[in-house]
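Page 42, continued from yesterday. The earlier attempt failed because a stray header line got pasted into the input along with the sequence. Redoing it now with the clean sequence only.
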Amino acid sequence: MKAILGCLLLPLTVAVTAIPANAKGCIKGAVVGGVAGHFAGHHGLVGAAAGCIIGHHEAKKREKAMQNAPDQVH
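This time it went through. Structure tokens are written below.
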């Protein structure tokens, strides 16, 4: 089962890392997700991937909020 999962995740990992992207939030999310995944049943790589996605999403939300914040200041 681990071999099948590894064979499926390897091309996905290569495809995701080959795409040039803005990595804001991804590194921090990947570290936190990797540690959490490791302690939740040795799923560090899956946790890192999920953490990267969530961290990037949160960074984009924060960036958008900062762009809108100056408009709301009185």
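Notes: The mean pLDDT is 78.
Reminder to self: strip header lines before submitting.
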